[in-house]
Amino acid sequence: MTVRRGREGTRTGSGKWVGTVGTRCREAARGRREVLLRAVRRPGPERDALLLQAKGAAAAATAWWLASWLLPSTVTAFAAFTALLALQSTVYRSLLDSAQYLGAMALGTGVAAAFGSTAGVHAWSVAVLAFVALTGARLNLLGRQSTQVPVVALFAFAGGGGEIDYIGHLVAAASIGVCCGLAAHVAVAPSPHTDTAEERTGELAARAQDLLRTLACAAAGEGADEASPKEGERRCEELAREAVRVRTTVDKEQENTRLNPRRPWSSAEDTLQRCQDTISMIERVGTHLRSVSRALSHARRATATEEVLASYAELLRCAAAGLGCLRLPRGPVDAGRLDECLEEAARHYDDVAASVRQGRLDTPGEWPVFGTALTEAERILDEIRHVRDRADQACRAAS
After folding, report:
1. Which of 90, 214, 306, 371 has an alpha carbon within 20 to 30 A of 360's alpha carbon?
2. What is the pLDDT of residues 268-294, one digit of tens each?
3. Residue 9, pLDDT score
4. Can you give the three-state secondary structure of the chain, one letter per residue?
């Protein structure tokens, strides 16, 4: 009976495992289908990734065909491999990686030719060559393509015996591959997607605004479970991680504008730089909010008067409203509403500051807590004012 239960349990456990794998496979297939649909429906990173795959296949096939027509069969695969290596996500990255790879090719084949013409192909000469090539790779003179130096050196030395003819054919195959890869990339170059960068940056700004409201609820003691200071700290960490991801997206789009034949000469650079400035501002605001969250956790444990906490909560709500008035990253700034938010925030700031100065807090230990919270709130308001002033300057310059 015991054995039967064990076998049944094993079958049940196996069934659950198979069911879990099947569920994950279906979810993965559904995700791939959604990505494909987005690629078909509108321009964006998904379509660029799909086009990059198609260009890679076409470039590799073309490079292999040309190399098989012009060069010995021993190096044709190298042309296709190099074509794939030359195709990166942006034209600038493709040109940079191709130049670095050709440098690694020159260095690796040079080492192989030197050893092949002097030492010959032996086990000890392969070891010495590998040591020399790895030393050259460690110098990191060719960026991330430095690791290709020992690969090329060993391939040219062990595969072709270090013979000059073979090395010449190898370099020619690599050159064909690079030319095919770059030609495919330049012919259908990916255009910068400023809309994607703006959308992601706007979502980040909205998250910061929502976090301000959450901390305001924590200060007022509203929804203790959903808006606790600990929850605020967790969301501050999430905001910081999301800012890193959004900056990576914007960095890629900025790189995509460099040396791009489809480069828009209108306002793409200005738009992406505005996104970068917004991300930097949100990161600074997130740092201040982390300090606010920690201060509120101490304030809620102390015996601070509810009136002081309520005023501070309104201060944070005004800051959140002011951040929304900036309409980041696109703009324009809603100047009238923003001034009202800043004036109201200043009144609540004065109320809390007066309570701290006049000693209306119940215990002396609460003074540094509210001092920190006020300082960080003022810094957040300064960030909002700075964006508003910069927008005003841009409007005056345009007029």
Report:
1. 214
2. 777 888 888 889 999 999 999 998 888
3. 44
4. CHHHHHHHHHHHHHHHHHHHHHHHHHHHHHHHHHHHHHHHHCCCHHHHHHHHHHHHHHHHHHHHHHHHHHCCHHHHHHHHHHHHHHCCCCHHHHHHHHHHHHHHHHHHHHHHHHHHHHCCCCHHHHHHHHHHHHHHHHCCCCHHHHHHHHHHHHHHHHHHCCCHHHHHHHHHHHHHHHHHHHHHHHHCCCCCCHHHHHHHHHHHHHHHHHHHHHHHHHHHCCCCCCCCHHHHHHHHHHHHHHHHHHHHHHHHHHHHCCCCCCCCCCCHHHHHHHHHHHHHHHHHHHHHHHHHHHHHHHHHHCCCCHHHHHHHHHHHHHHHHHHHHCCCCCCCCCHHHHHHHHHHHHHHHHHHHHHHHCCCCCCCCHHHHHHHHHHHHHHHHHHHHHHHHHHHHHHHHHC
